[in-house]
Specification:
By secondary structure, the chain is of the alpha/beta class. It folds into two domains: about 350 residues, TIM Barrel; about 100 residues, Immunoglobulin-like. It has nine helices and 24 strands. The chain is elongated.
Length: about 475
């Protein structure tokens, strides 16, 4: 039975920069051991592990890079595929995952396509490769036997099957028919559920017409069931901020991109630059108010393209929370923190913050920080009522309360421990600039070639008396 539209995930009625579900606002926080979540081993136990730390957001890539026995299409005895038949070993876990996440109020962001699935070595085992299926030939489709170029060069015509695209050929109409069949099958399982969001691609650099076709396709199928859905695309160049070529297409196209995913800003960018570029993207998206998600927050492995380390992932995660993002999730290891010890503590801290202050009532107010050095502190506030101040590496910050009268309660959240520290509530007096000194300055626990790593940071939670939860 299809979930009623009023209960489905959708922008929060009182602040459409955030999500609501079953009529109530909700902050999406996530971390998991893998991206194709429905194919994870011991999935139910892993979902329970997420719930235990306050996580409620997973990424579900419709992966086609698995061993040949785990592709979506049926594998025949001769090791070729039949695109007219499905592999139940792929779809049955998908169906179960949707039911299990729904039961736990864990939100699923499906990624329909991934450019890496049909490039390089993955093309050799792909059901879409004419050499691996019984449905069409290289001559009938115009496909090549190899696509060795990096997928970012967009040389694979699989992603140009829409009429009018630069590499479109009429032969690709045959492919598009099978592509539509694949997406229709995803929707046959997912549309009844109201806890699902739809992202067309992983870090695409293909012209926007590709993703826009599939967004409309999904909306049309949803309309047939009178089901409310939200769609977007993830552009690879989001990390470039104002220099990006592709991601600006979503800024003034809210009818197609009904929410945004800016995940790529969470790679290559560090410290203050990450904040600046993230906020630039959020502000431009929210010219037409919509939620902004980050289903991938990099940080781990020190990959050459710029993941940084685990603590960079922690900092990006919390800058996104303070910076007004509606959904944040650690990327899988080794490119991200997954649901490791640091990630679990960070999620617990963010969820404790969510219990004390509702982020949809706040906005970033960096002008309230006095003499603040780069990456020293970040603040979101409902001025005069409540403030969340994040100190990535401890130290202190100075908060301007000169225009505010009365007293405030101050409590500290330890990011590295994921909990409130101390029982005593400190009292702050308004009418002046107040000093916020972390419970202790964080000392580097390990030095690397890229500099010191810190334990995780602190969050100062400032509310009017008796309003701060535990």
């Amino acid at each position: 039975m299809t979930m009623k539209n009023e209960d489905r995930i959708q922008p929060y009625a009182k602040n459409p920069h955030y999500w609501q579900y079953k009529g109530e606002p909700v902050l999406l926080l996530g971390g998991s051991k893998t991206d194709h979540i429905f194919l994870a081993d011991e999935l139910e136990a892993h979902l329970d592990e997420m719930v235990a730390v306050g996580a409620n957001f997973v990424r579900c890539t419709m992966s086609q890079r698995e061993p040949i026995e785990m592709k979506p299409h049926k594998l025949l005895p001769d090791k070729t595929f039949d695109l007219e038949q499905w592999n139940e070993e792929y779809w049955s876990p998908f169906e179960k995952m949707l039911a299990w996440t729904a039961a736990r109020d864990i939100f699923v962001q499906i990624e329909v396509w991934d450019r890496f699935d049909v490039s390089g070595s993955h093309w050799q085992d792909s059901p879409w490769n004419p050499g691996r299926n019984v449905n069409y030939s290289y001559e009938e489709t115009g496909f090549a036997e190899e696509y060795p170029d990096p997928p970012g060069k967009d040389k694979q015509p699989f992603y140009h099957s829409i009429p009018g695209m630069p590499n479109y050929d009429v032969k690709l109409d045959l492919i598009r028919g099978y592509q539509e069949r694949f997406v229709a099958t995803i929707l046959s399982y997912s549309l009844d559920h109201g806890h699902v969001l739809y992202c067309m691609d992983n870090e695409t650099s293909t012209p926007a017409a590709w993703g826009q076709y599939w967004m409309q396709y999904i909306k049309d199928r949803a309309a047939e069931k009178d089901a409310l859905v939200y769609t977007t695309d993830m552009f690879d160049d989001g990390w470039k901020g104002e220099e990006a070529e592709h991601i600006p297409v979503l800024f003034d196209n809210p009818d197609a991109y009904t929410f945004a995913d800016i995940s790529q800003v969470n790679s290559r960018n560090f410290h203050e630059l990450h904040w600046q570029r993230m906020r630039w993207l959020v502000e431009n998206v929210c010219r037409h108010p919509r939620p902004v998600n980050n289903v991938k927050i990099y940080g781990g492995g020190y990959a050459r393209f710029g993941t940084g380390g685990l603590e960079d992932g922690i900092q990006r995660f919390l800058r996104n929370v303070i910076g007004g993002c509606a959904g944040v999730r650690f990327h899988r290891p080794r490119s991200g923190n997954g649901l490791g010890e640091r990630a679990a503590a960070c999620i617990r801290a963010a969820r404790a913050l969510d219990g004390a202050i509702k982020m949809w009532e706040l906005e970033p107010h960096m002008e309230l920080l006095v003499d603040c050095a780069p990456n020293q502190a970040y603040v979101a506030a409902q001025p005069g009522e409540q403030y969340a101040v994040y100190l990535p590496t401890g130290g202190e910050a100075h908060l301007d309360l000169r225009e505010v009268e009365g007293t405030f309660d101050l409590r500290w959240l330890s990011v590295s421990e994921g909990e409130w520290v101390g029982q005593r509530i400190n009292v702050l007096e308004g009418g002046k600039v107040v000093r916020l000194g972390a419970r202790y300055d964080l000392q580097p626990y390990r030095h690397t070639d890229d500099g010191p790593l810190y334990a995780g940071g602190w969050i100062a939670v400032i509310t009017r008396p008796s309003e701060c939860g535990s």
